[in-house]
Amino acid sequence: MELINRYIYAVTKSFPKKQKLEIEEELKANIEDMIEQNSSNYSHEEKVKKALLELGNPEIVADNYRGSKRFLIGPFYYELYLMVLKIVVAAVVGGISIALFIKSFFTANIDIANIGLEYLTSIFSGAMQAFAWTTIVFIIIERNNAKLRDELKDKESWDLTKLPLLPNKKTQIPISEPIAAIIFTTIFFSVFLGILYSAPEAFAVYFEKAGEMMRIPIFEIDVLKGYRSWFIAIFFLSILKEIFSLYYRKWNLKNSLVSIFIITITAILGVIIITDNSLWNPNFPTEILKQIQGSFDFPGFWLNIRNWIVAFFIIINVGEILSILYKGIYLNRKLQ
What is the pTM assigned to this prediction? Predict the structure, then answer.
């Protein structure tokens, strides 16, 4: 029975829930019929193996259920593509809304008409970019994996030893985790980049002096803006990592290695950005010290804060890598 379940899982793992249940029922009935029709003196287990071998490579069976493969984004990824696209577009809209709301606090003379127009154009532009980049990512994944699947079907003779193991709860990835990560990541970068280009004065410490509101910038905004392409790269790599988790729904070797690679790259980019001394306003600690008007060594404290940020950032990423190594490699080997 385990072989049958593994075969059905291999065929249906990438289908949406409703279609998956229908295919499971149909496949199970077909396999049972094939076993019953086998009048040989083989044992039940041998009859099961013979039936599954007659059905053949589960990837080919899955393709037959999907129908034609001539798609920009084929049925293999289409449901996942729609899910990610809806999440990303909704999160971009939410992020832009938050960014423009924050900007309104730093606008002296608010013009409702201009704000409304800016909001609509920003939403349209953000949604179109989200659609374009999400589609491009999935087209690349579709093309590369479609070629790989075809090559494997052509070059390898399939047998029952190639059936994937049934997922174990300890190595499974709850669908809520990558979805929540995509939402948080998209909103964070939408708000961050939105504020950076519409209200960069928000990245500052504000204080009142002689009845006037004064501010001390934390960053050198021009340098921060120069890292725009880096921020976008970190964003898309982070989303790509979650797409892999949504697709596999478990920590296997491939998903683990891809995730570790992406985490390592984004961590390196993040550390380079944070440790760039030209990014930080050199006058920030001394200006703050003037406002404190005490003996507190704020410049030294500020340097420690920056070091703590780097250390915390590294610890979080190393912790995530160790967790993936445990779930995706150690546990999988132990459970096999």
Answer: 0.73
